[in-house]
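Quick bug: Transcriptional regulator, IclR family output formatted oddly.
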Amino acid sequence: MDIIKNGSTIQSLQVGNSILDALSKQRRPLKFSDIQELTGITKSNLYKYLNTFVQLGILYKDDAGLYTFGPKLIEYGMAAVDQENVLDRVVPFLEKLNHATRCSTLFAVWTPEGPMIIKLVNSNPGFNIGAQIGTIPPLASAVGKIFLAFMDQATIGEWKERESAKLDHNVKADLEKEIRSVRKQKIAFAKEPILTSVSSIAIPVFNYKKTLLGAIAVVGFSEQIPSAEEEDAVFITDIKKTGFQVSQAFGYSEDPVTPSK
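Here's what came back:
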């Protein structure tokens, strides 16, 4: 076990990490004596480290005394995988939709400022959709409606309140009514929410926990984009099918999604 000693590191964390590293490299549950032999940590100190890790859920100790990675460490790993691979999984579907619809496609995720566009596929660079990577779509946009419908209300509260203040009473009432339909149909429409003649459709992407991971939107000239589900059944069916396929890639199964309250 190589421990780097300098004033800018915490040596006990390095020692603890060597235990996790040993378990990772062995790829099997280990006995106390195995870990002691692999790390060289004294028995008295190793006992304290292992007890602490078990209490925190970082490690799990079974009835036979074998140690393996615990639920908390697995949770951290799943979170890292989701963050690392989300665009790798989504981009092929964005490109597929872009090719099929001849419209721009984008993917937005939640940030502390609101839903943010993090990927844009545009086969016509000269076409201005009124948004780019880093744009926060407005509340009444198709993307905004998806987050209103499916994101945890405690999470979106500040953004919703801030953006709602920009709308008049009638528009807010209509939007609340529309959100109920979005929850039921799992698709949102927006006619020219940012630029005149540019409209959009958005679909939710759910993860294996059946919570909202992000939103995919198809953006184009208003004459290309249906403003209601019944206007172009084939177009809408293809988009919704793609949304379901993306969600499946994140472990989602087609059970009823419980809307936020």
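Actually, after a second look the formatting is fine. The chain has eight helices and seven strands. Closing.
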